[in-house]
Design goal:
This protein has 166 residues and is mainly alpha-helical. It is built from nine helices and two strands, in the order αααββαααααα.
Length: 166
Amino acid sequence: MNVTITKIRIGNLSVNYAIPLVAEALGMDDDDSKVKSLAETIQKKTEGNPFFMLIFLRSLYDEKLLKYNFGVMKWTWDEDAVNSKIVTENVASVLVNKMNRLQEETQRMLMVASCLGATFRKSAVVEVMKNISRVEMKGSMRSLSGTAATIRSSSTSLLSSDMSNA
């Protein structure tokens, strides 16, 4: 199999590029000025990392700090609440926090699926879940949650070494 891999380096975005990114994500790209303050806050909090900017924007929505107002047909947000929101430091923290907000049954399904590999059949997940008791799964989840800090610190050091080698 002959595959060519091309690396594309994307640096952090300045405010001038953050504004259209946020405007487009919210479908408000007809007038960037409407999202200017939100985009500036997001850019500052994420240091312009495009991935974190979109994740942060999604977390604002998930936490109901960013809402779509059907009465006026536009997105609204509370500037103070957005400004006070804390940004997580790395990808692992973002993913761990997101997974912790999932329902317990969904977490169980993801644990089983992750053990089956990158590709699997839905029926395989269902069959494995039938054969694992809730008690066993809860014990596994508790032991995994204790390793979340280890995952975070490991990914931080991996990300740091990747950045220094770039």
